[in-house]
## 1
Amino acid sequence: MSLVALRKVSKSFGNHKVLRDIDLEVQTGEILSIVGRSGSGKSTLLRCINGLETIDKGDIQVNGMPVVQDKRCLQQLHRDVGIVFQSFNLFPHLTVEENITLGLVRGKGLAKSEALERAHRALSSVRLSDKARQYPGRLSGGQQQRAAIARAIAMEPVLLLFDEITSALDPQLKSEVVYVLEELASQNRTMILVTHEMAFARRSGSQIIFMHDGKIWEKGDPKVVFENPNTEEFRSFLSKVIR
Amino acid sequence: MRTFGFSEFIFLLAGLRWTVLLSLIAFTGGILFGFLIALARISRWPVLRFLSIGYIQLFQGTPLLIQLFIAYYGFSVLLNLKIDAWTAVSLAFTLYAAAYLGEIWRGAIQSIPRQQWESAECIALNYFDQLRFVILPQAFRIAVPPTVGFLVQLIKGTSVASIIGFVELTRAGQLMTNVTFQPMTIFPIVAVLYFLICWPLSRLGKTLERRFDVARGITQGI
């Protein structure tokens, strides 16, 4: 059974249809990249998968459970699914370490000592061990984003969602975050990324979808899809993104 | 006729004691009740939001003096309940402070970016924990200066209680003026006494504000 399954998912903001009949499946161990212009519905799609947005029609299943707007269900979903945002969204009043242990202790019910251990493991995997006691405001953008990634992976989720996590960073900081992404990819984690990192999507992705106007226009193995786009929309998108 | 001397000054200090005590009661009660008002104000339940908005509008839209009159006379007239000046002023000032503090904190809580709520939700915190560990600590930092500012207003505002015969600092000043006919000796002293309490508080508010920012290394826009 698929880890993530969307059937005929539709959503509107007022009269604007952001998602139209989206069908999608992601298997355990897969890396799905969602690409498209801004406003194509890709971030909304990602947010629907972990219940941050409600859907109007269709259904979404994650890890065998339907995603429904119910407090208990959503809390369980968030124990299983981690997300990293474009704007980091670390808690500025907590140290990096506390940012990570908060969810482990209050969300997953781990003991403080175990949470700390996990936090330090996660921090070392994003090479941020020396910043454990710092407040986010003292870190660079790249460091903040790596701390946010550590916060998500420390929860040991079955699925990781990344919402344009490199878009707010300058090129050098981008590359340090992409490097972490590559490492996560090599660990066989299941990930869904909304991204503009075409090189990463091509190299490490197992599936790619191109979204335009709330619909999926291309879907498949990135190595094939990038070489032979089926639609004019994707071709024109690629010609603008890759120079 | 008496002249203003040591014993008259002591009488003012005795009045000052009630001013401070009334302020403390109103502030403590206002904090507790105002916190509930703030929570109700941001609640997902429309009924709670509606009731708290109504409450805040009512207390912010009517003069404090009228609220005092109603607290003082209202109970005896409407409920046939004898209520002393102390209870009346404590009650009125507490309800009044709760309305303002509730609104101050509502603003502080809502000034925390929506993404902080989302982030907290996404690490599987329940609503109460989202508030407790993520939103309130940040809102607190924002709320401290206006809260201290309101406390200063409240302390000065207690002088209104003199009108229903509650002998706090201002009323004590009036009484001493009546027996000494030295208003320009007494009222400046009264003013200085108020100032000696309010000024350090204002300073404390500023210091706290600065300390939070430095300790946390918080920059804007995170």
## 2
Amino acid sequence: MSASLNKGVRVLKEMIDAPIASYFSSCVHCGICAEACLFYTETGDPKYTPIHKLEPMRRIYEQEYTLLGRLAKVVGLAKAVTDAELAEWQELVYNSCTLCGRCSVVCPVGNDIVYMVRKMREGMSAAGHSPEGIKGAVTRTINIGSPMGVKLPAVKAQMKHAEADYGVPIPLDQEGVEYLVTLSSMEIINFPEYLGAIAKIMRHVGKTWTLSSEAFEATNAGMQIGNSDLARVIVSRVVAGAEKLKVKTVISPECGHAYTALRWEGANLIGRPFTFKVQHIVEVLEEFRAAGLLKLEGMATDRLTFHDPCQLARRGGVIQPQRNLMKMVAKDFVEMPDAGFMNWCCGGGGGASSIEEGEELRLEAFKRKKRQLDAVKPDRLVTACANCRIVLEEGLEHYKMNLPVVGLTETIAEHIPDAE
Amino acid sequence: MTITNDKEFKAALAVLDNCTRRQATAYLIRQALDLTPDSRVRAGLDLAVRCDANEAELAVAAAGVNSARVASYTQCGHDANWTCQASHFVARAAQECVKPEISASGAWEAAMQARMARICQSIAAGEGTSNREAEAQYRALDDYLKAKGSAS
């Protein structure tokens, strides 16, 4: 069925489950969520107040599921949600929300606003009001299996390149190994060194691993657009690949939403427990460190800081492992203000970076990150999300900040003794 | 000496002084200039082959090359255009050449980025993993070193 207002409103009604209803009914309109959202703090525009981004869905909730709202609707006092209104809200639900979750964790009544925005996106998508950039990613995911149109020959080319660069073989479709390594499209296209770094680290720690020709891609565009069916399809591909190869652990790449989709929502999406464990690459590296398997050499003497990807730190609870790893390689590791659980988003998560028309707003929001960085004046910025990395680089370039951005996995691999 | 593999290639780059290494690396990266339309990258490499380039000139060139590199990233969720991506990797390669000091590992890194650019071109052409840039780089470095040797 094609997208339409009727379909969108129907889906929004269906999305209003018990948590959503309780969230709307318990909102006290305090506005604290506004101060947690970088799109509000950096623009001062009240339309970017997170709970306001849900206003069309709140009205549907009121008119359909509350007594007074129903009465108002019966006597013609309720204002129905219109197509023009949903079109206007597209910017609020997609461009100015990165699903970073800061609003959710400051809400005094415990409303998970990210959960609500994702439900809202389901209705927006059904109504045809999702950004072209994200729609394109979804179409490519359905047709090709990758939101950025990456096919297996490209992955094989990158494998060959990484093998030559790092001098380490990269296994494909090896059955019975410990780890299945998945990649994000961003890593395949922009950061092939990630794959080489993984190969180098795995050899160093003596672990068996593989890529899968059927499940190399972990990026989940379904999560970003708000389409559970698609999110399920993408997760199912990884599950099928992992089960076929009988691996013990699937490693989620340096990609925020890939991790959330697979680690926290994957089993619910497919309706059964996984037969394997899911870990972010940072968690795996931390296990290697804790077990004494990472025997690194040399310490960076320049000043390093770490940008916590929202989905890893705030939504996923992985905060200390990256710091333990940083301290293995950095003599001068400094924390930005608000680092860790309350870190500010890069401004491009949740699909926002794929929305071209949202670029100006993203750069405005980046002023928050600029202030965080200005406070500690690092020489290098390390992160663990390929999307964060590019959004950060664009912001730094825009504000003429000469600050290299590097991935954590590559940074660790650089300190593995060359003799290997 | 004829370079036939990566080990010899790395060794040849490692023994060069800073200026010669920068010139040689820039010469290698120029082999891939057909893959980028960006004039900032070309200007950076033109400067890199000059031994008299001073730090201020290199800093200006580095800023231009960095802008070209950042601008040519493929954004998350965008359709991968491997031809454009080739341009990105040429810019990444050029970035190493406009640093005041280029280490042997930096020169190797630049060479690998140029090879990556050629891989992107082969992916765009549907040729998968075919990539002869390594051999082309061996020949180019050989030619450069021979020319340098006969000139000195």
